[in-house]
Specification:
heterodimer; A: MetI-like fold; globular; B: 279 residues; mainly alpha; 13 helices
């Protein structure tokens, strides 16, 4: 009896499951895959986005990238920016997590406070810090004599740090909590045993705690790396690429080329180039993770 | 001796924690006090606490049709994305996770759905403008569709890995008792997925509320379509001199998120960190 019903029901089940997939698949195809394919197609043309005719130029857009000084400048900026962002975020989030991990009164309050920037929008923060740099820091500079605090966004050198500071300010929150969660997986008896045998704080950290933090470390590194490469909101809000084009990131130049300079197909080629960099980094991350799984 | 050492140690921890906290609190303090002062008071002293609560700035913002449009657009876009995402993605992931076990060819579909995770938004950005204007969707509804399409990879990945880890006895029992697949999903699977659904929805909700890039490219034609981030951005470029008014817009845009954070702080921290690890 049961055997007779089962195939019928099984067929119904797999049909229902297939129906479950269709709406999601539709949105994914229509609003993610189709534009990507369109982009790949356009990147081989010289279309400006609105004229009725365009020609195939094959790989010329891609080759142009390597001779385009403005793009290479943006690449250089993004590289320096990302390296600085990754270093600061990793170092400071680890330090803050170590501080928060000490059991003192009020540490839950501090945890909630330190995480708060994660829920704010980078654009709003950029606009707020704009005003703070412009109005609050000069007052502070006069009061303390630290003259370099004046006119942060007006020279290329200082604007780099001014823009970076906002992203660090916001980007520390999630890595800090990730490290904190990682620190809590460390068995206390191992730490205590090391301390009993006379290991100092630094030695304990290096030999006992750090190995437990490696998985978190790779996650934090990749998160910071990606957010650095894709930096856009804070730059758009604070400097619009200035002064003198010194803070133009890759994401910003793609936007600029596509929307204000009407280099439609060229900007897509740039974006695909950037996508390749991100895929490369992700591939490295995955292979590192897989190696870890094997060794464990 | 030992006790004294401990005391100075915790004093040092407190000092460092408070220095860090000041970095977070001071910008927030300035953001909150500035709109309660008149321009005159602000130009006298940027840092001081307001002498009298001046509400004119908030009055100006709250009576401007642009703020209302932006606020309701943002609410519409965020809730629309959350509702659609809640209906579509868990259902799809359940079907995928169970179909893979019976028919290996679904694995290819799963990989296809994950492929987009590495592709940055900029690749789709320019073609999306063409696509959306062709199908006449340069509006908030179009933005919701983009958000659903764009968040598929991440959400499906999180849901499927969660579903693969939970035991299947309950749904099999329900199935043998004669429950339909649809009913099994709604009454048994969905309640089991609660924690991961919360993670994904918190992540997507914050993303949509704070997003600037997608609204900038498809909604910046008329102010009727602005979201709060676009409103702040355009407002700032219009009223550069009256910055206490700008700060009022910042406060009014951040307020809902702040309230949410105070109430749901534990869930938000848990949700965002869980989502980040799985990425």
């Amino acid at each position: 009896m049961k055997k007779e019903i089962y195939p019928q029901k099984f067929w119904n089940k797999s049909r229902t499951l297939a129906l479950f997939i269709i709406p999601g698949l539709f949105f994914y195809l229509m609003f993610a895959i189709v534009p990507i394919l369109m982009g790949i197609r356009y990147s081989f043309t010289d279309w400006n986005g609105f004229s009725p005719h365009y020609n195939n130029v094959y790989f010329r857009n891609y080759l142009r990238i390597f001779h385009d000084d403005s793009f290479l400048h943006a690449l250089n900026f993004t590289f320096r920016y990302t390296v600085a962002l990754v270093c600061f975020i990793t170092l400071f989030s680890l330090l803050i997590a170590l501080l928060l991990n000490v059991k003192v009164k009020g540490s839950t309050f501090f945890r909630a406070l330190y995480f708060f920037p994660a829920v704010l929008s980078m654009l709003t923060l950029g606009l707020i810090f704009n005003q703070i740099y412009y109005r609050a820091l000069p007052v502070l500079a006069d009061a303390t004599g630290l003259q370099f605090l004046k006119g942060i966004l007006s020279t290329p050198q200082k604007a780099f740090w001014g823009v970076l500071f906002v992203q660090i300010w916001q980007g520390l929150a999630i890595p800090t909590i990730l490290f904190l969660a990682g620190l809590q997986t460390i068995p206390i008896d191992q730490v205590e045993a090391a301390q009993m045998e006379g290991a100092g704080a630094i030695r304990t950290f290096h030999s006992i705690k750090l190995p437990y933090l490696y998985p978190t470390l790779t996650v934090v590194l990749v998160l910071a790396l990606k957010s650095g490469i894709l930096a856009f909101d804070n730059i758009k809000a604070m400097t619009e690429g200035g002064p003198a084009g010194s803070t133009i990131s890759i994401a910003f130049i793609i936007y600029q080329h596509g929307f204000t300079e009407m280099k439609f197909s060229y900007s897509i080629a740039e974006a695909i180039f950037m996508g390749c960099i991100i895929c490369f980094i992700s591939a490295i991350q995955i292979s590192i993770n897989n190696k870890k799984k094997v060794s464990l | 001796m030992r006790k004294k050492h401990r005391k100075s140690f915790s004093l040092m921890i407190y000092t460092l924690l408070i220095i860090g906290a000041l970095f977070i609190i001071l910008p927030m303090y300035i953001t909150i006090i500035t709109p309660f002062k008149t321009m005159k008071e602000n130009s006298l002293s940027f840092f001081s606490f307001p002498t009298s609560l001046y509400l004119g700035n908030f009055h100006t913002i709250l009576t401007s049709p642009q703020y209302y449009a932006a606020f309701f657009n943002t609410v519409y876009v965020t809730t629309g994305t959350l509702v659609l995402s809640f209906i579509i993605h868990p259902m799809m992931s359940y079907a995928l996770s169970r179909s893979i076990q019976q028919k290996p060819r679904y694995t290819y579909l799963y990989y296809f759905l994950l492929a987009g995770i590495f592709i940055p938004f900029q690749v789709k950005m320019m073609p999306l403008v063409i696509l959306m204007s062709r199908i006449n969707m340069m509006n908030t509804t179009g933005l919701i569709c983009l958000a659903i399409g764009g968040s598929t990879c991440e959400s499906v990945f999180l849901y499927v890995s969660y579903l693969n880890a939970i035991p299947q006895d309950m749904e099999e029992a329900a199935y043998i008792d004669g429950a339909s697949t649809n009913k099994t999903y709604r009454l048994i699977i969905l309640p089991l997925m609660k924690p991961i659904v919360a993670t994904v929805l918190i992540k997507n909700g914050l993303w949509m509320w704070n997003d600037f890039m997608m609204p900038l490219i498809i909604l910046n034609r008329t102010w009727k379509n602005w979201t709060l981030t676009l409103f702040q951005y355009n407002f700032q470029t219009q009223y550069t001199t009256d910055y206490s008014l700008s700060f009022a817009t910042f406060v009014m845009s951040m307020l809902p998120i702040m309230i949410f954070y105070v109430i749901l702080q534990k869930h938000i921290i848990g949700g965002l960190t869980h989502g980040a690890i799985k990425d």
